[in-house]
Design brief:
40% of the residues lie in helices and 15% in strands. By secondary structure, the chain is of the alpha/beta class.
Length: 352
């Protein structure tokens, strides 16, 4: 039926991956009929150079420069609160904040999505939270109790046996390290998954900073310790100082101002990342306030947030996608929406 059209082009690949191909029997029979009819010279048009046509696809006559998106929503649509964990997103990739909090777009889970490292992180967080909230002490029985909690949560996930054993081994390495660390610390009170907030007074009105901290420990000397569990790679201290990873300083600010329910305003003694990788020797503690005091880090982070809020309270300021390529988010659910590959390729940018 298609061959009845006024103009028909028939093509085939003479090679595939460098290997010569054999024409189909239908095409060989068709070619033989054309030759026998003496009309082959009327059907094969040498003036059409198909190779040049193919090459021309990658050599357009002109290039169109695509600009990054610059959405400028009204002030009434812009967020008036932000979590400590999302301030980093705002700083590194404002467009993601626009898509998530203004357009209200959220990535859907994949169908039949398999468990991943994020789920392992939830396993560790939830097991420690359950252990602490049950008023258990980190004594000689702690390992057995934590192991039982972890095994119960793993069984609920219905993993394949090999995956369950792999994750259980990582979990056991992690809790062994944590119990040993806790038996050295002896805090007066451990507060897990605790929520809190403070309000910043900025030019366009109040702005709320809130957080759900993994740990806020009340120490024996009356000071506080802010701890964040990281089963993935934690930010470097340089990133924290430069306010590209301000989560812990913001949580410390909330703690210092009495923003966490049930914890009175107190001095923060330390801010720590516990890198709970799960390898036998892969768990370690990272002291964030090693080069600058908690007070300095808090003051710097709050100043950055205030400047950020004041800037975006101006409707002329757009929500740019990755303003600085070298400081972009490692992972983003919105790069495809920002059509990142279209406009980043012209300036040497890449997908990551």
């Amino acid at each position: 039926e298609a061959m009845g059209a006024d103009k028909v082009y028939l093509t085939r690949a003479q090679k595939v991956d460098g290997v010569p191909t054999v024409p189909s029997r239908w095409l060989m029979r068709f070619s033989a009929c054309i030759t026998a009819s003496g009309i082959d010279n009327k059907l094969w048009f040498d003036e059409y150079d198909l190779v040049k046509w193919a090459e021309a696809i990658d050599n357009p006559s002109e290039f169109i420069n695509i600009s990054p998106p610059e959405p400028r929503p009204p002030l009434s649509a812009r967020p008036r609160k932000m979590s400590a964990t999302k301030v980093e997103m705002w700083r590194r990739d404002p467009y993601s904040v626009y898509a998530r909090y203004i357009l209200k777009l959220k990535k859907l889970d994949e169908l039949d999505e398999e468990y991943n490292v994020a789920d392992y992180g939830n396993l560790v967080h939830e097991s420690l939270e359950e252990f602490v909230n049950a008023k258990n002490a980190f004594d000689d029985s702690a390992l057995d109790k934590l192991t039982k909690i972890g095994q119960e949560k793993l069984s609920e996930m219905e993993l394949e046996k090999s995956a369950e054993l792999f994750w259980l081994n990582r979990f056991l390495n992690t809790i062994n390290w944590i119990v040993a660390k806790e038996q050295q610390r002896h805090p007066k009170q451990i507060n897990t998954e605790i929520e809190g907030a403070i309000t910043l007074n900025v030019k366009a009105g109040d702005f709320e900073l809130f957080a759900k901290a993994d740990r806020v420990d009340e120490l024996q000397d009356g000071t506080l310790s802010i701890i964040d569990y990281k089963t993935g790679t934690p930010p470097s201290n340089k990133e924290v100082i430069a306010n590209y990873a301000p989560q812990l300083p913001i949580e410390a600010a909330i703690a210092m101002r009495g923003g966490f329910k049930g914890i009175k305003p107190s001095k923060v003694k330390e801010m720590l990342y516990w890198h709970l990788k799960g390898d036998k020797d892969g768990n370690k503690e990272q002291v964030v306030n090693k080069d600058k005091s908690p007070e300095e880090l808090v003051e710097s982070a709050l100043k950055m947030v205030e400047n950020l809020v004041n800037a975006f309270d101006d409707e002329a300021i757009p929500y740019h996608a990755t303003p600085r390529a070298d400081k972009s988010l490692k992972y983003s659910d919105y790069k495809h929406l920002a059509r990142y590959k279209e406009w980043s390729s012209g300036d040497g940018g890449g997908d990551e």
